Amino acid sequence: MTKNYVKFLQIPLFFVFLLILPSKIYAQCAGDDAQKVICDIYNPVYKSISLFSLLGGTPTPGGTWTDDDNSKGLNTATGELNGQLIRKGGVYHYTYTVANAAGCIDDKAVVTITIGAYAGVPAPFATVCSSKKTFNLFTAFNSTVMGPHSNGTWKDSKGKAVGSTIPIAGLEGSFQFTYTVPVVIACSPIAPTSTITVTIFRAPEAGEGQELVLCGTTGLAGYTDLDLHTLLSNEESGGEWRGVGLTSLQDNTINLQEVFDNNGAGTYNYTYTVLAYPNNIICPDETSVISIVLEKQLDFTGAKLVIESDICEDKITTAVYSAKITQGPQVIPDGEYEITFVVSGPNGGTETIKVNFVNGEVSFPIKSSYFTQVGTFRMTVTNIISTISRKACANIVSDLFYDLKINPLPCLDNAVLTSSPTCQNKDASVDISNIVQLVNGPYTIIYNLSGDNTAAGQTANFLVADGKANFKIPAALNIKSGVSKITIIRITNAVTGCTNNVFLQGDLIINPLPNAVTVKIQIENVCFNDPVPAVVSGLGNLTDAVLSYTLSDSNTSTLQTVALKVVNGNASFIIPAGLLVNTGSTTILASNLMNAVTFCDINLSNIFDTFIINPIPAAPTVNNPQTFCKVDGATIANLSPRGSQYKWYNSAAATTPLADTYLLKSESLYVRETSAANCTSAPTTVSIVINDTPAPVLNPGGADFCGLKNPTISDLSKVTNVSSTVTWYDAKENGNLLKSTTLLVHNAVYYGYDLSTVTDCISDNYLEVAVSLKDCDVAEFDFFIPDGFSPNGDNVNDTFRIPDIEFLYPDYSLEIFNRYGNVMFKGNINKPNWDGRNSESAGFGDGIAANGVYFYIINFNKDNKPPKQGRLYLNR
């Protein structure tokens, strides 16, 4: 507040008092006029000034107030004035009116308020960021104090007038501005002023971002290393980048192909932020946004277009049409699309319409004016694009068309109807030819029958191909033999649904069925795999027939047919072996009989026969091979299995079995089993193995032993080639098996057989050995001649015998003489012992040699050893 302003406030109060005295001294109903000067309008007390309390005299309450100068601060209902709402210094008038007051001389009173000019109090700080572009200087005043009056003027520090809102873009630093309000003389002769200081901080520059619109499906080849700065202008460097596909805040290159491949179509925003902190605490960080729109090419390949619907030519004037498009393999997003299509034909044209795809489908009407005559009209969709698309991609729309048909009515003019003769209760085949007015395809007709068989309103379907067609008249309509008339009265194209009345006639001949009342079939029981003949009788006057039958029970079959040559009502055939794969009871059921001349047939009922296919015994299970020893002399009777049902053969094809006495040898034999039904099994091959062990072989000189060594059977075995397995018997047949410890006997004959440890067979042949115990070496043994003996019958030394001489000198001879030179005894290996009797001279006494001395001569007959003479003493 200036000094002049303060001085003005010191005007003597009595002057103020005089100013508010009423001009007339008599009472008024509205009170007396009043005045008030307020020079410190910023004082909070002036937010509520009671104008009624300022009136002089005795005003009548309940009057009304008016703001004569529209100061905006008066509450007219209460008479309360908020002086701080008045935005200009000056003089303001407020009128109080008491209406219709009785006895009032004057019903109005005026309160005059003078408000001094107020330039406000500057705020301690006024800071702003240049990014705000402009700054309102009034915001630089202290917000806790009443703001300045609004009728002042602003000047910058150079005295240049400026508006209250100044441009600050690009500015940086502190700037002063002075605000001056018009003087109000009642309060001060000097215009109040306030000076503010505004500090402007320069905002960071993130630049202006651009938008990039691309086709992600086909247009990203050149955007695999895009520098995002190329989509900014006027940006500061050193900012931070954020967005899909960036690897760091400093990464400013992006591979849009990868972004699209990984995330699909969409709008991708990339933000570039330049930081204000730490040097600038007023301005916020600034961010620019780059929008990259990647659109997906829509592929309508495989999409289907259908127009509802084809019509017949009689519906041209009333038909309406609707097209429906269904998406192909690629899902089409829901939304609004523009579809452009072309319709061919004399009234065709091109249209573009807006439609909404929902769940991959859209339907829309097609003008009927395109389709005004019989023919095929192609509607081809040439383009489909979303209305919200940026059209970056050229969508694929190929082969999306539909051929709408206006179909003609079917007609049988000039057609010819013929039929082949058929049988009672059989379908009849009807041919239609020369169908020149029908296109190929299926049709439905309605026809009538008259003549031997009658029927009305019958329906049949047929297929027209190259002017010809065929349909069936069902068997139920062909009950009687004879001639019937076929009349076609209506025809409908089954594809187009177009129908028309027609008239076409032809004859139908029905042949009678064969008589099957006496038919019978008979089959005898057989063995499995044997031919199975079937005899059919009761065929009447048929000459050629075809019989249909099935098999059931143990053997089942699908329906079989067989041609029969009939003679005198009888025929026969062989059931194929391939149908008889199981044994057991099988039933043949004849189901149909056809006359092979007229091809008329009849279903048979209860014509069957049951026969048995006896099983072939399983090929016998045998031990294979069967092994025998030759020495055992095995025969067929020794083979397994045995029994009257088993027969053995020497070949797989042989029919004559071998006798039980057949001697086995190493060969292959075959065994079969015959069942009680006289069915013979397949042969089982049996390998017969006859093992034989070679007879032992005696080593050279092996039969010669020295009896003095007490040789045994074991020693005899050792001189063969099979010493560990040979066995010995004392006879060729029924001999005794000799123990290995059995002592050998001179000149005894032994029979050796070998035993194979592999086959466990004894050799069939044998080794015959006559043992000699004379093979002794004299040098090995002590040889002495006894000098006496005592033949007295006590069994001790009763004979004279030279020990072991038979082994050492087997060819020796012995002579004993008495003292007279008479020969008493002659001995050798066969007569070795002298019992003390005279065995050489019959005339010598009683033959009993007397006690005494006798003399002997021994001829050794070996190794040229000379004879030896000696004496011996006989003592009884």
What does this structure look like?
- The chain has a 5-stranded mixed β-sheet with strand order 8-14-13-10-11, with no helix packed on it. A 5-stranded mixed β-sheet has the order 24-30-29-26-27, with no helix packed on it.
- The chain is elongated.
- The model is unreliable at 1-27 (pLDDT under 50).
- Strand 57 (852-859) and strand 58 (868-874) form a beta hairpin.
- The chain is mostly beta strands.
- The protein is built from 6 helices and 58 strands.
- The longest helix has 8 residues, at 256-263.
Q: Could you list some keywords that capture this structure?
A:
five-stranded mixed beta sheet, elongated, mainly beta, single chain, 876 residues, disordered N terminus
Short description:
This protein is mainly β. The protein is 4% helix and 39% strand.
Largest sheet: 5 strands, mixed
Number of helices: 6
Total number of β-strand segments? 58
Helix fraction, binned, reads: under 10%
Residue fraction in strands: 35-45%
Low-confidence stretches: 1-27
Record the strand order, biggest sheet.
Answer: 8-14-13-10-11
Net shape: elongated
Q: Which radius of gyration do the C-alpha atoms yield?
A: 74 Å
Q: What is the CA–CA distance across the termini?
A: 199 Å
Structural class: mainly beta
